[in-house]
Design a protein that fits this description.
Helix content is 24%, strand content 23%. By secondary structure, the chain is an alpha/beta fold. Among the domains are: 172 residues, Ribosomal Protein L25, Chain P (Beta Barrel); 112 residues, Ribosomal Protein L25, Chain P, CATH 2.40.240. A hairpin with a 4-residue loop joins strand 22 and strand 23. Helix 3 packs across helix 12 and helix 8 packs across helix 9. It is elongated, with a radius of gyration of 31 Å. 39% of the residues are buried. The structure holds adenosine-5'-triphosphate and magnesium ion. The site of adenosine-5'-triphosphate has 14 residues, from helix 3 and strand 12.
Length: 598
Amino acid sequence: MSSEKPTIPAASNFIRGIIDRDLAQGTNASRHWAGSPGDATHQATGAPDPAKIRTRFPPEPNGYLHIGHAKSICLNFGLARDYAGVCHLRFDDTNPEKEEQEYVDSIIEMVKWLGFGWDAFGKSHLYYASNYFDFMYRAAEALINAGLAFVDQQSADEMRITRGTLTEAGKNSPWRDRSIVENLQLFHEMREGKHADGSMVLRAKIDMASPNINMRDPAIYRIKRAHHHNTGDTWCIYPMYTYAHPVEDALEQITHSICTLEFEDQRPFYDWVLERLAEPPTEAVGANKQALLAHPLPKQYEFARLNLTYVVLSKRKLIQLVEDKHVSGWDDPRLPTLAGARRRGYTPEGFRMFADRIGVSKADSWIEYTILEDCMREVLNEASERRIAVLDPIKLVIDNYTDNKTEDCFAPNHPQKPELGKRVVPLTKELWIEREDFEETPPKGFFRLVPDGMVRLRYGYVVKCTSFEKDAAGKVTTVHCEYLPDTKSGTPGADAIKVKGNIHWVSAQHAYAAEVRLYDRLFKEAHPGSGDNDFLDDLNPNSVKLITAQLEPSLKGAKPAETFQFERHGYFVADRKDSVADKPVFNRTVTLRDAWQK
Ligand code: ATP
Ligand code: MG
């Protein structure tokens, strides 16, 4: 073991700093909220917003949430909670092709599981961006009316070429100077389905020479004949994400729109869209004279996304793992999806602790997986009752113990919580013990059972090894012992005989033989797929081991999702999917100590 401990970055609170400043200055105090998302006219009919801040978590319902999303969820919902605000759960479903109800349901379930909700001030704040399509269309018309958007008929290739490069300015589209009237007409025709997919796009008219490529007349609407899960076939044009997102935030009166760093270069366009829509129209063609949006406008802030060692957090790679059957499904306990982590036995408290501990920063970095595991250990240590499990059983026979006798031993349910009491574990002549607790030729410092040696059976008696048996292959099958009758734990004089070792055991007659899945990391490399490697080459071939373990009888009654510490082994959870009444199956959540430290 090296002395190098993974460093835990200090929890930076630069976003909290921004919110503190905004609250002190009253930046967002003049906002009104009419009880639902809407434009400036709508919001003006409402009272001053009772929410001090509004944040949002905006997943695209095209996949399952993963541990990276947990960071964003804890951040956004956590800020709303701490600042007397509200966090909206918004499905960013403006892309018609990839979205499904199954993902919507699972996202709702997992955000709730993490301990957060969107009911506040007497209202639910669960929203769908696709409900804003009408407004987005109206806002695009307003941009056209203001001379700030035009219909471009260049091909995709032409547009790519004329966009320029990082070092070279782009070129204006030949269609850039169409009249407002013509642009409006074409945009209406796009909507009416008069033009083929891809034959034209609506583009913002900004600056083809901008050093920021995102400001070089970005597309805001495209033609796409695709069925949408919410709006059906109502639309054949769909807004681009970079245009839709600021509009969604504004309609929902979001104060602090927090996203990951890759959107930093999009911030100027985010502001451009909102500021233009907040300007009163000058020459409104058939529209009213009101600005569509009101100040103060939402502001975007970026933080570093979570990169975690030994896992992949890209939707594309996760899909590949599932579709190519490297795992059993989206909730495979080895996957970094939240559904998988929950099944593995990871807890919401552990995720919230993790999010607090890693903090929020502006600098991209890798977080050690052990930090997450340590959080889970900390929470599970506190929350889980202790139980006894023999994972790799061999027999121990107490030759001088009465046949057919059963004696009660008492094991505390939680060493730090005596109030949780003790439970009975039955002791009999034949027990299961751990194979690794007996050594024929012990290495130096081995204090457990050895020929002629003595050890304490935890919560029971001191026993002395008298002999052992092996099978044809030379593997030990049975250890014979004699017990010392005056040494039972908890009785006077039990400690008269001092022994160094203390091993766990289960009565063979009473044991529950259970399926236990010993999960380990899915990848053997800290940075799967780094260098020229295919990430699949870095899969850990031993990421799961199925065993039949001998468990103390009380574990037969474990309820699905109940967690335990199996003494000396780690934390285990009764699998929520495969456990049936009186026949729970257990998953190893995490070992007691980090086995991966070199
Ligand atoms: P896609 O590639 O499909 O956009 P995504 O992981 O960004 O995938 P979204 O559904 O768009 O998925 O994500 C919802 C929110 O979760 C976004 O606001 C995004 O910033 C945040 N998020 C996603 N991955 C991470 C991550 N690794 N760390 C922190 N936040 C993340
Ligand atoms: Mg995204």
